[in-house]
Amino acid sequence: MTASRYARDNPPMTWIDSHCHLDAAEFANDRDTVRLTARQAGVGTCVIPAVEAANFDAVRLLAHQHGDVYALGIHPMYTPQAHEADLQTLSAALQQYRADPRLVAVGEIGLDGFVPGLDMARQQLFYKAQLKLAQQFDLPVILHVRRSADLLLKGLRQTPVKGGIAHAFNGSVQQAQQFIAMGFKLGFGGALTFERANQLRLLATQLPLDALVLETDSPDIPPHWLYVTAEDRAKGVPQGRNTPSEIPRIAQVLADLRSIGLDEVQQATTANVKAALGLR
Questions:
Q1: Which bin fits 147, alpha (ψ -120 to 50), beta or left (φ > 0)?
Q2: So where are the chain's domains?
């Protein structure tokens, strides 16, 4: 079932996509249409995080254009090409737009222990510096968590911030509880829709509902109905592009796993994003 068909067959609820890279090049040809389609599916707000200094203006302008919100930060996978001067650029931007109600967090920041070749010491330098900026400007953070939960938690203990969202969380229950205790909500998205994702599905059912938020990470992490296998990709079949319109179907998977109503998921996850990022 396509997102548009889902929207026709189910009365729209108001959802929040807590992590969507709407500025990505994959949306260059139809960005406005993608956002309109998501709104028609009930996605009232997208959180658009930056990944490098070069796209600070892009995410801010998109958020204002579409009535969304944004975060400014340097992603750990962009630290190889980042300069320490970019931290000064970030500080200046946070200062310049601190009164902008659409600026809701410092992000996407964090650590990545999965991608080969990334210098962890350099990642740590940017992560710790950005935590200090979040603390200085009294903003929550949006965290990239990939085989790095313990190191991220250590940084948060050293430089406490006002919570935020641990994006695409896939750690242990114990790690989840530590993030929650620090005021974080945990992001679940397309990966949850795969039947073989046993550990992730267990987390989504064991953790309290008031700790969970929904996300797409568009255009990445497609749900199973958009996923194209490596074999098919080798034959030239393009990977399915994820969009914020998929939030209602991802939410239905979460509702089914927890044996609760879709309306309960909508109310809880919407309230959770608002609490994490100070949205009204």
A1: left
A2: 15-277
Whether 189 contacts 250, CB under 8 Å:
yes
CB 202 within 8 A of CB 262: no
pLDDT at 4: 42
Q: Smallest Cα–Cα separation from 277: which of 189, 168, 212, 185?
A: 185
Give pTM, 2 decimals. Answer: 0.94
Candidates 274, 247, 277, 245; CA nearest to 262 is: 247
- Between CA 58 and CA 7 the distance in angstroms is 29
Tell me, letter by letter, the H, E, C secondary structure of the chain: CCHHHHHHHCCCCCEEECCECCCCHHHCCCHHHHHHHHHHCCEEEEEEECCCHHHHHHHHHHHHHHCCEEEECCCHHHCCCCCCHHHHHHHHHHHHCCCCCCEEEEEEEEEECCCCCCCHHHHHHHHHHHHHHHHHCCCCEEEEEECCHHHHHHHHHHCCCCCEEEECCCCCHHHHHHHHHCCEEEEECHHHHCCCCHHHHHHHHHCCHHHEEECCCECCCCCCCCCCCHHHHHCCCCCCCCCHHHHHHHHHHHHHHHCCCHHHHHHHHHHHHHHHHCCC
**Vertex 1 angle, CA 186 and 236, to 5°:** 85
For 237-264, what is the mean pLDDT?
95
pLDDT in tens, 32-46: 999 999 999 999 999
Residue 101 neighbours by CB distance under 10 Å: 10
Rg (CA), the chain: 18
Residue type, 141: V
Q: Which two tokens stand for residue 26?
A: 């994959």
- CATH no., domain 15-277: 3.20.20.140
